[in-house]
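Sec-independent protein translocase protein TatB
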Amino acid sequence: MLDFGFDKIALIGAVALIVIGPEKLPKVARTLGHLFGKAQRYVADVKAEVNRSIELDELRKMKDQFQDAARDVSQTVQREVQAAGSAVESEWREAADAWSGGSPATATEALSTPVPEYRPPKKNWRLKRGATPLWYKQRHGVRTRAQSGAARVARFRPPGLGPRR
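C-alpha cells:
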C-alpha cells in the first residue's frame, strides 16, 4: 500500500482545507471515511470468497480421493468374495460327487437333513421376574417377599398406636 507519513498527511489536510473550505471539510471527510470503509469491507468479502472457493476445491478433491479409495476397496472385496464363493462351490461339488458317486443333485439331497419347524419360546413370567436385578426392583417398588395383609397393616401402622385388640 502507499506509505503515508505524518508530514504527508498534514500536507494533504492543509491542501484540502484550502481547496474545500472549512465549512464543507467535515462533510467531505465523513463521506471519504464511509467510502474507505465500504472499500475495505468489499476487499475483505472478496478475500473470504476466494478462501471459501479454495477450501471448497480442496474438499472436492478429498471427496473424490475418498470415493476412489472406497470404490477400490469395494471392488477388491467383491473379487475376494466371488473367488471364495467359487472355491467353496467347487469343493462342495467335489465332496458331493465323491460321497455319492453320482450326480451332484442326489448328493445335495442326501446331505440335507430335515429342518425342524420353528416354535416360539414359551413365556415364563416367573423366570422373567427372577431375572430382574434386585436394585431395579427396589428402586421401582416391586415386592420381592410375600407378606400377609395383617402383616402389611402392622408394618405401616404409625408408631405409638400399638397392636389392635
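The two ends are 106 Å apart (CA to CA).
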